[in-house]
Structures are given as structure tokens and as C-alpha cells.
Amino acid sequence: MDFSFTDDQLSIQSMARDFARKRIAPVAAELDQKGEFPLDNIREMGQLGLMGIEVPEQYGGAGMDSISYVLAMIEIAAADCAHSTIMSVNNTLYCNGLLKFASEEQKQKYVRPIASGQAIGAFALTEPQSGSDATAMRCRAVKQGDGSYVVNGKKSWITSGPVARYILLFAMTDPDKHARGISAFMIDTARAGFHRGKTEPKLGIRASATCEIEFEDYHVPAADVIGEEGHGFRIAMGVLDAGRIGIASQAVGLARAAYEATLDYARERKAFGQAIGSFQMIQAKIADMKCKLEAAYWLTLRAAFAKQQAEQGAAGGRFSTEAAVAKLTASEAAMWITHQAVQVHGGMGYSKEMPLERYFRDAKITEIYEGTSEIQRLVIARNETGLR
């Protein structure tokens, strides 16, 4: 078993780390405070290939593998979780879905501008009344005589919704068929009938813009249907498997940042005449933080490897268990590690003068989006037992 990385993988990791430290870290706190979308940074990340790491060069991407994506995501997330959220949606939920299911013409039209950073993409599955239960969606797409569709309804919690040019939308085309009645569509937000709601005032990842979107007699041409009618749920679930690896990577990067800050503080902070890192209770926290971080890191890399194997025809073409295990482990590790980091820092951990309180706020969302921790446990248990 070889745990080493290729030169290409190490190269994109180094490039992402350098960009994160020089361009993202210095502005992360200010952007979080203002809730300001980092458009200039995202465009530059696109130019560097970070917004389409696994997208082939012919569609404007970097043409690299899943391991490269994980390594780069970790570095971006370690500097700012909000930047990595935007990066994750563009790479996995948007580009990955279109690469797998879109036609050649659709890939050229809708993947290239997103992967290259010229525009922002989004993924619209969740609705006000349907989060984990995606089959309860009410957004309707009614087929017309010419093969086009008219869409009406709302979607909520759309990451990058306030700034996205193109959106991969899932809507109900045949309610009587439930999951088999969901279809996927490309949405151009410049067309009539598309409306954006207010930007959500979130607890964390505040520089990542999120909003509700609404469709009012929005016309989707037949050429913008992704895959076949009724295959939308299968497309969405497949895309979420890849998306969970992205969120696991994000959680690892965030947890690493909190852990490294804690190490530095434990060495420097003095109490009762000695560094607090020499106290056994602090040492126990550091040891547990290290173990959880390492477990999350390697499980995330294993999930990325499983994804690559599945895409090459191995493992039956699925990696849902590995992705769920990684996402569950990493997100809960991030929440625990950031909590402990704040505790070790004491009053300074609670202050906005240090990034610990931002790490703590940002960590919570990793346990919620792209499948809550409860849903991950459900996925894992059902896949293991074969029972539904």
C-alpha cells in the first residue's frame, strides 16, 4: 500500500497553500464580519484551476484527480471555510454532475465558464419544506408540447445563489412517481422568471453567499434538460456522494487550522509559571485532537481513492459508504476540535480578535449541509445491513 502523493498532487497542494496564505487568510476575518462574497479571489482561483480541479482541460479545468482535489480543498479551508464552500459547490455539486450526465454541447456551454472562474455555479435541491427528504419537493417543471418545460416553485439554502450565473436545478416532473418523477435542468439566471431572495444571515461561512430562489413561469428549453426525464434523483444522489468528500476535506482543513493554533498557544501561553501545554489536561486534549484529525484526514483520502476506483469501473461504481464515513467522521471531528480549541484558548478563544471563534462557527455547518450527520449514519447503516 503506497501512501505517497504524485508530483502533480503535491504541486497543486503547494499552489493552493500558497494562495490561501497570501490571498485568503489576510482578508478572511473582514469578509466574515461583512458577509462579503470574495468574488476577486474566486475568479483568481478559477484561473489557477481550483474551481474545476477534476474537470478535463477541454472544458476549462485542471484535469487532475480526486486526491488532488482533497489536498487543495484542505489548504483553502484551513485559511477560510467560506472560500472552500464556494470551491466545493463549483467542483463537486455543479461541475461533477454535469461531467457525468450532461451532453457534450451542455458541457462546453455550462462547465467551461464555471471551471475557469469566469462565472459562478450553484446546485438547487433543497426547498423550504424538504431538506433531507428531497423527494418531498414541490418545485414543478411541466413539459410543453415542444419538449421544453415551465418551472414554478422555490428552492432554499442555495450556496452562491445570490451571485450564480448558472444553476443545476432539480424539479418534480411527475409527482405520482415520487423519486422517479424528479428531473434535472440547467438554469440560466439571466432569463425571465428567475428571482433571488434575500441573502441568508448565517452563523458561519458568512462570506459564502446563500439565498432562496424562486421560479415564476420560468421557461427551460429542451436543450437544457440534463440526462433523461425522471433521472434527476439518481443524478442528485450521485453528485452528493462526491460532494460529501468535498465537505469532509473542508472539515479536515478547518480542524487542522484550529489544531495548529492550539498547539502554538499551548507552547506560548504561561500559567502558574509554565507553558499550559505541559499540563496533563491540555496534553490530553491535544492528543485527542490529533487522533481525530488524523482519522478524518485519512478517511477522506480513502473516500477520494474509492471515488477514483469507482469511476474506473471498480467497486461496482459506487463509493457512497466511503464518502458518508469520511463526511461524518470529519465534520464531527471539526466540531469537536474547534470546541476544544476555544476551550484551550479560554477568553481569547471567545474573542473575535483571534480566528478560533470563526472556526467554531464555521465548523457547525459541516455537520448539516450535503447530508446531516443523522443522514450519514442512515446511509452507512443501510449500506452495511442491506436493510431499508
TrEMBL record:
Catalysed reaction, written as an equation: 3-sulfinopropanoyl-CoA + H2O = propanoyl-CoA + sulfite + H(+)
Example GO molecular function: acyl-CoA dehydrogenase activity
Domain Acyl-CoA dehydrogenase/oxidase N-terminal residue range list: 6-118
Ranges where the Acyl-CoA dehydrogenase/oxidase C-terminal domain occurs: 230-383
Family annotation (InterPro entries): Acyl-CoA_DH_CS, Acyl-CoA_Oxase/DH_mid-dom, Acyl-CoA_Oxase/DH_mid-dom_sf, AcylCo_DH-like_C, AcylCo_DH/oxidase_C, AcylCoA_DH/ox_N, AcylCoA_DH/ox_N_sf, AcylCoA_DH/oxidase_NM_dom_sf
EC number in record: 1.3.8.11, 3.13.1.4
PROSITE patterns linked: ACYL_COA_DH_1 (PS00072), ACYL_COA_DH_2 (PS00073)
Keywords: FAD, Flavoprotein, Oxidoreductase
SUPFAM superfamilies: Acyl-CoA dehydrogenase C-terminal domain-like, Acyl-CoA dehydrogenase NM domain-like
Cofactor(s) this protein requires: FAD
Domain Acyl-CoA oxidase/dehydrogenase middle intervals: 122-217
Similarity comment text for this entry: Belongs to the acyl-CoA dehydrogenase family.
Name of the protein in its database record: 3-sulfinopropanoyl-CoA desulfinase
Organism, as annotated: Metallibacterium scheffleri
